[in-house]
Amino acid sequence: MRSNKNTDSFINSIKGRMLVLLIFVVIVGSVLVGRIFYLQIVNGEEALMDFTLKIQKERTIEAARGKILDRNGKVLAYNELAYNVTIEDIYESSKDKNKQINDTLLRVIDVIEDNGDSAISDFNIILNSDGEFEFTVSDTKLKRFLADIYGRKDISSLKYEEETSSAQDVIDYMCGYSKFGIGEYTDPDNPRDSFVKGKGYTRKQILQLVTIRYAMSLNSYQKYIPTVIASDVNERTVATILENSQDLLGINIAEESIRKYSDSRYFAQIMGYTGKISEDELQSLNNMEINDYNIRTTKARNDYALNDMVGKSGIENTMETYLAGTKGKETVYVNNLGKVIETKKTVMPIAGNDVYLTIDKDLQIATYNILEQYLAGVLVSKIQNIKEYKPTETTKASNYIIPITDVLFQLFNNNIISISHLSSEEAGDNEQAINAAIVQKREAVLARIEEELNSRKTPYKDLPDEYKIYETFITTMLSENGVTKDSVIDKEDETYLAWKVDETISLCDYLKYAISMNWIEVNKIDIKTSYSDSDEVYAQLVQYIIEHLGNSTAFTKKMLKSMIVNDNITYRQICMVLLEQDAISIIEDEKNKFTEGRITPYEFIQYLIKNLYITPGQLALDPYSASCVITNTEGEVLALVSYPSYDNNRLANSIDAQYYASLQSDLSKPLWNYATQQKTAPGSTYKMVSATAALEEGIVSTTDTISCKGYFDRFVDAQYKCWIYPGSHGSINVSGGIENSCNSFFYEVGYQLSILDDKYNESFGLNRLNKYAYMYGLNEKSGIEIEESEPECSDEYPVLSAIGQGTNNFTTVGLARYVTAVANSGTVYNLSLLDKVTDSNGNEIVDYSPSVKNTVELPTAYWNAIHKGMRAVVQKKAYYNDLGINVAGKTGTAQESKNRTNHALFVSYAPYENPEIVVCTRIAFGYTSEYAANVTRDIYKYYYKLEDEDDILTGTAEVPEAAITNAD
Q1: Closest alpha carbon to 215 in 165, 180, 169
Q2: Fewest CB atoms less than 10 Å from the CB: which of 5, 102, 542, 652?
């Protein structure tokens, strides 16, 4: 096109307009997507030129998080460079924008999964084993999640329908046309009204898209901030993404630092993990005031942003401001498509500081393994080849046994065997056989339940035990699903009591009454029209129950217990399924022994447990959990072990929601720190507190005696027995009271402490007893720098409280602080996990040492009497003979439930002559304190190198040596 007068006029006119346009682009260019064209004259020719935007942006450079190390410098938490697949929202606004993003994401997810990696699942909803959407959080966390989903500032702003949303409701909302548009419209001319949520997508794809789109939405307010689709991907994924980058708009590969944990299962409860900052955490951290007691830091960052990774729990959380480091800043230039075309670093980040703990890594690992070996040993010694076991009223808890059917049931009940896989296309022969038996059983059970609900109407108390279990499951299911309005049910109503307490009416009668009283949320049972007839509502409710039972894995588990006992499925079939599902990995020779019939299913199960192919934590049969805290006598924590544990690598950076949900549903509660959060009665480990009270309050001197008749009969309406009854200890002094763990001695102490003006005064006695519990720090948390439960000192029954019962409830770490003070003769420390903090170059910033809470001032003779009694306790245990070091300790048992075995405790210190370390061990529902004492002995062997390590850490079950006494 040649220049002419008209053209020149046009060009001159557009030049002015182009200037205005370019100014506009500079002002709002960060939100403009597209290409700008302009005319240019070249050698008299007019050409349409492509103008590429170059927009300047400032962004932060994340600082490397500091390491966490043990007292000897062994690394426990560190950073590792990894490849992440990310997406930036640089899509043009249009009615098809959601579809374009969703299609791109699905293509990327396919690439990721085809190469053996996984997309992020850091969302509080999962697909459960029944294929239904399910929340992974509850209570306040759930409400906070819902508030975020619906864009509410706080929980109180939620509307009723939002607050009561089901997981499916949330998914439907997120799939909506106006939200993420996950679905299809049937009318192109009217996409909004014809949009069908979820259409064209599998439930798995829907959840994946919602998870990523929600994460993208959290970054929507700031342009050019990428959202992670998958983290720590392999090189195959990287290569495939890069090869197809031209067709994957907004998709990039980013090299970023991720958090890693060494030997994670041994330290997860201490370390905690990192994760993406929440709104609440953002506000809290940026508004943080220096709090020397909690974080012991000299600075606060106050520059956190919504994409930051922060410590979520444990030391990662407590020491956040030290570990996080200081961000850097850089200037980047992006083009009109949001691609970075130039980077200019301006301020380099400063790496976080390194935190050293008082923990000894090797001791921590050894203690965990010793606990596991002994738990397995107890199980092996208690499992018998019988179908059912019901202890009598006179059976001692230490003599309870475990029928093999309970073990086989737990393989299903705690998800060692996948029930959903039984009906899959890949199911093996034995899986198919068990599934067929389940289908047949379910048909029969549902038919009977439907008959009960419609015509038979058997009162609950007259039902067979099996069907009592089923009907209890139904009422629980209705409650959990929000079908019954639990908050409005009148718990004093006669009909309610007839069902719940007296058990004299049928479930049919109760549910019909509940409908008449408006205790049923009819909207939850898929009633499509307004029903005025309660019979129609009831019919729909019955249909709802039958349908949900038919699709419920949890209900299938209830049936399986009966099926195993009644031989509907065989022991051999169950064991073969373990092999078909690769649930265990054993050497071929041992596998062949079973498959060829050379050993029985019972022997095979025993073999698996003995060799820890199936662990106590997996079985979740008592005893399956334990804790141990080891301190030095200066209050430093050398080991803090909670069994079972978990892999915090799978929760760090981006939570694996499915794994997190499996941990939450795990019956052994691996997320719980049994050392710091579980509270039980201390049992007789409390008797050093009572001995201190007796001596200081003048109840006895070191030589005075109290006579044990085998029982305590000062109360007309109650008689308390000593554990030795019908025998007795005779006259014993305070050292003998501890040595023999004599309940009668300490009952009398509790009684005498309660005498005021020659009368028994319960409140007076409790106050005097608790005075000494407080002196030992048992009324406060121990001081450790991670999450810990509040202790409970007894507020009733001073006589029982004096032997560690009443309402005393303490954590293992709380007992460790108390016994540390006993061992060092009176210095009560605030225990600490922190040793020091250094910068990334190793320069020390802070040096920690446990602070002294208070001292227990006692005459040397009193301490000698207490220590002498504790030493005598251990001298009576044959398995401590010739140990090579003298140990002092105290056993304790604590009953929590009449249907379960007792908690087993042993607190101790060594060497007796010059104490260096304290070891406190608790086996929850561990039968007898002798088992805890066995564990503790092997810990001393390991610590003081009294036996070859390979002989201590065998990796196989250790059956505890038989108890030589029934003392607690």
Answers
A1: 180
A2: 5
For all residues of the chain together, what is the average pLDDT?
90
Which is more confidently placed, 19 or 43? 43
Q: What angle do CA 520, 522, 523 make, to 5 degrees?
A: 135
Please tell me the distance from the alpha carbon of residue 6 to that of residue 563, in angstroms, as a whole number.
94
Contact 386, 870 (CB under 8 A): no
Single-letter amino acid code for the residue at 907: V
pLDDT at 956 over 50: yes
**Residue carrying the six token digits 């600082």:** 63
Cis peptide before 188, with omega less than 30 degrees from 0?
no
Dist CA 370 CA 936 (whole Å): 9
3-state SS, residue 144: helix
Omega prior to 623 cis, within 30 of 0? yes
For residues 624 and 926, give the distance between their C-alpha atoms in angstroms, rounded to a whole number. 8
User: CB neighbours of 885 closer than 8 A, spacing ≥ 6?
Assistant: 910, 911, 940, 944, 946
Provide the Cα torsion 594, 600, 601, 605; round to 10°: -80
Q: Please state the rounded mean pLDDT for residues 201-212.
A: 96
How confident is the model over 67-91, as pLDDT tens digits? 999 999 999 999 999 999 999 888 8
CA-wise closest residue to 449 among 296, 559, 351: 559
Between vectors from CA 268 to CA 266 and to CA 270, what angle results, nearest 5°? 100
Residues facing residue 750 across a β-bridge? none
Separation of alpha carbons 391 and 382, rounded Å: 13
Given a cut of 90, is residue 855 above it in pLDDT? yes
Q: What is the pLDDT of residues 879-937, one digit of tens each?
A: 999 999 999 999 999 988 888 999 999 999 999 999 999 999 999 999 999 999 999 99
The tens digit of pLDDT for each residue in 494-516 reads: 999 999 999 999 999 999 999 99
Taking only the tens place, the pLDDT of each residue in 814-833 is 999 999 999 999 999 999 99
> Looking at the DSSP assignment, which residues form a beta bridge with residue 342?
333
C-alpha span between 500 and 493 (Å, rounded): 10
- Beta-carbon count within 10 A of 293 CB: 9
3-state secondary structure of 563: helix
At 829, which helix (H) or strand (E)? strand 827-830
Burial 25-46 (b: 16+ CB within 10 A, else e): beeebbeeeeebeeeeeeeeeb
Q: What is the 3-state secondary structure (H, E, C) of 240-289?
A: HHHHCHHHCCCEEEEEEEEEEECCHHHHHHHHCCEEECCHHHHHHHHCCC
